Amino acid sequence: MTMNREGRPTAPAATKDAGVSPTFTGNRALDIEEKLIFEVGRLDVTGVDVEDPGSFQDRLGGHARKAPIDLPGLTEPEAMRHYVRLSRQNYAIDLGLYPLGSCTMKHNPRLNEKMARLPGFADVHPLQPLSTVPGAIDLVAELGRWLLELTGMASVAMSPKAGAHGEYCGMAAIKAAIAAKGETRPIVLVPESAHGTNPATAAALGFKVVPVPARADGTVDPAEVRKLLSPDVAAIMLTNPNTCGLFERDIVEIAEAVHAAGAYFYADGANFNAIVGKVRPGDLGVDAMHINLHKTFSTPHGGGGPGAGPVVLSEKLAPFAPVPFVRFNPDGSGEFVETRKQAGDTATPFGRITAFHGQMGMFVRALTYMMSHGADGLRQASEDAVLSANYIKARLSDVMTVAFPERPAMHEVLFDDRFLDGTGVTTLDFAKAMIDEGYHPMTMYFPLVVHGAMLIEPTESESKQSLDQFIGTLRHLAEKAKAGEVESFKAAPRLAPRKRLDETRAARQPKLAWSEPTTPKAEAAE
Amino acid sequence: MAKFFTKDHEWLSVDGNVATVGITDYAQQQLGDVVFVELPEVGKAVTKGGEAAVVESVKAASEVYAPVSGTVTDVNAALAENPATVNEAPETEGWFVRIELSDEGELAELMDEAAYRAYVDTL
Amino acid sequence: MRYLPLTDADRAEMLGAIGVADIDALFADIPLDKRLTDLPSLPLAQSEMAVERKLAALAARNVSAGSVPFFVGAGAYRHHVPATVDHLIQRSEFLTSYTPYQPEVSQGTLQVLFEFQSQVARLTGMEVANASMYDGSTGTAEAVLMAHRITRRNKAVVSGGLHPHYRGVTRTVSEMAGDRVDTLDPDPTGTEDILARIDGETSCVVVQSPSFYGHLVDLRPIAEKAHAVGALLIAVFTEVMALGLIEPPGAQGADIVVGEGQSLGNPLTFGGPYVGLFATREKFVRQMPGRLCGETVDADGKRGFVLTLSTREQHIRRDKATSNICTNSGLCCLAFSIHMTLLGETGLTRLARLNHANAVKLAGLLETVPGVEVLNRTFFNEFTIRVRRNATDVVQALADRGVLGGVPARRLEPKHPWLDDLIVVASTEVNTDEDRAAFSAALKEVLA
C-alpha cells in the first residue's frame, strides 16, 4: 500500500480542564455560544418585509411547491446577533499575524471593498449591452495590462474563478496547442513539492502525472527534468518560488530543456507575491501562469473564497485562450471577445470555463490595490515580505530546524520537526499551542517533502514589533517543548472557543446537514 | 495456514488457493484512525501490484495493492460500517479481501513474518 | 506607503540580523541577467483619494442597473439585498479569515458552512449539499463528471433549455476529459423531447428548470426514464429564488441538483463572484467535488464543526481527487446564507410570489405590444418574447431609450440564426409598475 502522509491523531485525547468553572449559560463574558439557526429560528418569522402582490392568476402551470421547505427565519436583530457572535469565533488577519505559508494572509485594504461596491461596478449585469458598460470593460482591460506588465507575458485570460481554475485554463490551453500541432503528449511532470491542485488539474484534463523528485536543497534539478522529458511530455507544472519557499534558481535551464523537448512550461503563480517587480516570469521562459488575486493582490480570502485566477499566456498559447477574453486594440483600448465567432481568424479559443466574464468584484479590488501601491509599492511589498520571512528564519534557526538552510528563503520559510525529536511534541501539538498564544498556526504537514513541515509566511503587512513578538512566542514554545512540558502541548488549545475537534468521528459518521434531534420518546419506541 | 507479507505493508494468509489480504499492524499505526475503506467488487480480477482497495484516514488516502494475482472471491463488507476494525484488529477481523490465486508461484516472492519484522525494524 | 509597516530603520536592522548587506542578497537565486531594475510603464504609488477618484470615474461610465428600468436576467438577477447582509460579510472575522483548516479558531465560518449546506439541501429537496462551487456553470460541469464516476459511463445528454454558457462549460470540460456530450438544440418554446435521447449509454441527463428561456419543466418523467436505463438526472437552476415557489428538484427524482445562488445576498457585479450550489443524495457523497463541513465534538464533548471527507480533495488525493477545486465561494455563500436566514421560509415564499407576480404583470403588458409574442405557457420570473425583428438591435434601441430590456438570445447562441428575434426578459421584486410601463412603451416605440 502507499502511505503518503505521516499518521497523526485525528481524534483528540481527553484533557483535564484547568480553566474557569462552568457558567450557567455556557458563555464566558465576551465569548458567547451560539446555537444553529435551526434551533433559534422559527418558520413563521422573517427579517425581510415583502409587499403583498395581492391575488393574481399564476403561470406556474401546476409546478407550484406542494410541501413546506422547513427553513427557519430570524428577525433582523436576531440575525445580527447570530452572525456577529459566530464571527467572534474566527481568527482573522485583522486580529493578528496569520502565518499560513503558501496562503499569503496579507492586509486587505478597505478602499478595495469600497471601490468594489460602487454601483457602476457592483450593480451592472454581465449581459447588459456592452455599450452600457464601457467603464467595466476598461477596468478589466486595465487590470489585464498591469498583469501583463508585471509578468512580461503576451496575453491574459481573465475568466478563471480561482487559482485552481486558472491552472485548468492554462493547462487546457497547452492541451489545445498540442492538439493543434497534431501531437499527442499524454504526460505532465509535477514536482513532489507541488500543491495538490497541480496533479489534480493535470488529471482532470486527461494527463498522466509523473512526479519530479526534489534534490537535497529543496529545488528541482534540471538534470532530473531532462531525464523525464520525452516526446510524450506535454508540460511541466512548476511553482516558483516553490512551496519550500525557495526560488528555483535553475528555472531558465529547466524552461529551455522543456521547450527543446517540444513541451510547455506552466508556472503555478501561487507565490508570485515574492517576486512582483523583481523578475518577470515571461523573461524566465514561462508559457502560462495563473495569478491568485487573493494572495498577491490582497482580495480578501473571505473564509475560503471567492478567489480569482487570471492566467497570463505566452505568444504561443495566446490564440488558445478561452472565451470571453479581452482583445487589445492598437489604440490601447480593450474589447470583449465573447464567442468563438467573434474571435475571428486570429484566435482559436479552446472553449469556455465559466459563465460570464470572471470575478469582476475581485478585479476591482486587485486593481485598486495595484494602483494604490504603484510599481514602487508593489516592489517594496515583495521585498518586505521576503525580508520578514528571512528575519524569522534568522531569528529562529538556533531553536527550530530550517528545512533548507543553505538557500535564502523567499516570502516564506520552511521548518521541519527535527527540533522536536525526542520531546513527544508533534508539529500538530506545536501548531495548536500557538493558538493559545493568540496566533493562527502556520501551514503544517505541507509540503510533503519534509517531515512534520511547518511553513511560515509572515507577509509584508507586519511591523517589526509584531514580527519580534511572533519570534519570541515560537522561541518560547520551542524551548518549552525541549524542556519536557509535553502535557501542555497535548492539551492545546485550551483557550480557544473549542478544544481539538474529533475529526475521526466527523469522517466515520458524516453529519453534513442539520436534522431534528431524535426525541427521547422516539428512541424509546425503537 | 501460511502467512506472508509485502514491503508495502500488506499481509496475506493462504488457505488452499485462497489468500485473505489486509494491511499490517505497522501500517495501521502509520495511517492513524481509519475512517473509510473502499473495497473492490467480488469477481474482479486483480494483478499483483495493482490497486485492490483504498484505505482512508482523515488526512490520507492510501491504495492497497494486490500482493498476488487472481480473482476477488469475497470482501469484508463489515468494514463499511466499522472501519475502526482496521485499527483494532488489522491482521484478523480487519481483513480486506479474499483472492483466489491464479499463480501460486507468486507467493515465493513474498516475505515471511520474521523477514517482515526485520524489514519494519529498518524503517 | 500606507500599507507597509516596516520603516527603513527596521529594514536595516533586520538585514543586519540576517547578516546580509542589502535586500538584493536575499534575491540572489534569481538569475542576475533576468532581474528587473524598474517597471517604467506602470505608475507609482497613489493616495487613497487619488485612486478613488480614478476608479469612481471608470464606474461612472457604466449604466448601473438601479438607475434605469431593468429587466436583464439570463443567469444573473437583480434582487434587493438587505443592508444587514453587506454589513455582516464585512466583519473582519469573516472577510479576512482563511479556509477553516484550524477548526478551533474557525467555528464561525464552519457553523455558517454547516447552516449553508443545510439550507441548500432543504431548498433543493436533497439530503446533502457541499460548501459551494465557483458558480452554477462550473457546478454543472462538475456534476456531469461526478455522474460519470458514479455510473462508470461517459455520455451526458444535455437539454436545449440549459443556459448556453453552462452548456459551453460542460462541453469544454467534457471534451478535455475525453467524455461525450449529446446536446439538444436550443429550446425556446419548451417543447423538446429529451426522453428520446436517453439510452443505455447515457450517464446523466442535464435539465434546467426554470429553463434558460424561462419554462418550468416537469422533471419526473425525465428522472424515471434516466433511472430506468441506469442514468442520473442532474437538475439545474440559474434562479434560486424560484425554489421558493416551485417544487424542488429533489422531490421530482433528481440525483444531483446544481445551480446559481447569486440571487440571494449577492450583487450582479458584472458576472462574478457568484456562488454555485451543489446538492445530492447521501449515497453519492464520496463522489462529490468541493469542500464539506460536518458536525462533530471537541475534546470536552462540545458540539463543533470541521471540514470533513477531505480524502476526496486535491490536497490529499492529488491526481485521484474528485476535482481540482481548492476553494469555495466562501464570502458569497455567507451572503447567501445570511439573506436566506433573514427571509426564512415565510419571507422566501412571499418574495418568490412577488417575483412571479411581477413577471406575470410584465408578460401581460408586453403581450399587448403589437409585434410581441410571449413564447412561454409557464414561467417563474423570466420568459422569452419574439419580436419579429433583430433582437440585438431592439435591445440596443431600448438601451438608447434608457431601458435595459432583456438579453437577445443570439448573444449567447451565435450559431443559431433562427433565434435572431428572441429576447429573454426577467422581472424581479425590484421592478415597479412604472418600470414595466416604461419598458412596454419603449418597446412599442422601437417596434413601431
Keywords:
heterotrimer; A: 526 residues; alpha/beta; Aspartate Aminotransferase, domain 2; Aspartate Aminotransferase, domain 1; 2 domains; 7-stranded mixed sheet; 4-stranded antiparallel sheet; 13 strands; disordered C terminus; B: 123 residues; alpha+beta; OB fold (Dihydrolipoamide Acetyltransferase, E2P); 9 strands; 20% helix; globular
CATH class descriptor name of the largest domain in chain A: Alpha Beta
Cα-based radius of gyration of chain A, to the nearest Å: 26 Å
CATH architecture of the largest domain in chain A: 3-Layer(aba) Sandwich
Number of strands of chain A: 13
Residue runs with pLDDT of under 50 for 5 or more positions of chain B: none
Distance between the termini of chain B: 27 Å
CATH topology of the largest domain in chain A: Aspartate Aminotransferase, domain 2
- The CATH class of chain B is identified as Mainly Beta
CATH superfamily of the largest domain in chain A: Type I PLP-dependent aspartate aminotransferase-like (Major domain)
Q: Main sheet of chain B, how many strands, which sense, barrel? A: 6 strands, antiparallel
Number of self-contained structural domains of chain A: 2
What is the average per-residue confidence, as pLDDT of chain B, rounded to a whole number? 93
**Poorly predicted residue ranges of chain A:** 522-526
CATH-assigned fold name of chain B: OB fold (Dihydrolipoamide Acetyltransferase, E2P)
Q: What general outline of chain B do the C-alpha atoms trace?
A: globular
Order of helices and strands of chain B: EEEHEEEEEHHEH
What is the rounded distance between the termini of chain A? 42 Å
Computed structural class of chain A: alpha/beta
Largest sheet of chain A: 7 strands, mixed
